[in-house]
Amino acid sequence: MNQQYSSVLLEKAVNEFSKLPGIGPKTAMRLVLHLLRQETADVEAFGQAVITLKHEIKYCRVCHNISDEDVCRICSNPRRDAVTVCVVESIQDVMAIENTQQFHGLYHVLGGVISPMDGVGPSDLQIQSLVERVAAGGVEEVILALSPTMEGDTTNFYIFRKLADMPVKITVIARGVAQNDELQYADEVTLGRSIANRIPFNGQM
């Protein structure tokens, strides 16, 4: 056992928390000690919530956002603008755009961007399901709202080529988000303006 730990159980718990993104050993220790100070019922509720999430969470069969049902609350909401679909990289981006309260259409979550360096190709993403969704009809505008990075631009171009022959308007968010910034970290005002001031996408990278 590492000498800094007085308990094997404590060490194991800290090691598990350290596996979370952005959590170093010191932060993991603080979190574990915090849990130890809580009532047993509260800690059990915390653990059960994580286990239930893992076993029961679903992905919307329409947009691939996380959901409690087969179709998420956004896609099933009759008050949303169903003819406008905003294409994003991740679930975090959906949350970021929703927080702006500037977009009232639907989403399509790709699950990443094309990145040959990381071994991620078009077939690894939800691009074909987007093509099928547009081909099925009912979608009038596709907004490409990917992060303004080389990978994001490459993915925008690929999607544009796949949809070019379909009767759908393709737009891209305005460059209010700084180059190379991830969408989820943009402030709400900037992101909201970028969505509202979107421009036609001409297929240029």
Question: What do you see in this structure?
Answer:
The structure is a single chain. The radius of gyration is 21 Å and the shape is elongated. Strand 5, helix 6 (150-163) and strand 6 form a beta-alpha-beta unit. The N and C termini lie far apart (53 Å). It has 205 residues and is an alpha/beta fold. The mean pLDDT is 89. The strands form two sheets. It has a five-stranded mixed sheet. A two-stranded antiparallel sheet has the order 1-2. It has helices at residues 8-18, 25-37, 40-56, 91-100, 127-135, 150-163, 188-196, and strands at residues 58-59, 66-67, 81-88, 105-109, 141-144, 169-172, 199-200. It folds into two domains: 8-56, Helicase, Ruva Protein, domain 3 (Orthogonal Bundle); 80-200, Dna Topoisomerase Vi A Subunit, Chain: A, domain 2, CATH 3.40.1360.
What is the CATH third-level topology name of the largest domain?
Dna Topoisomerase Vi A Subunit, Chain: A, domain 2
Quick one: CATH class of the largest domain?
Alpha Beta
Report the end-to-end length measured between terminal Cα atoms: 53 Å
CATH architecture of the largest domain: 3-Layer(aba) Sandwich
Assembly type of the shown chains? single chain
Give the proportion of residues in helices: 40-55%
**Poorly predicted segments:** none
Task: Give a nutshell description of this structure.
By secondary structure, this protein is of the alpha/beta class. The protein has helices spanning 8-18, 25-37, 40-56, 91-100, 127-135, 150-163, 188-196; strands at 58-59, 66-67, 81-88, 105-109, 141-144, 169-172, 199-200.
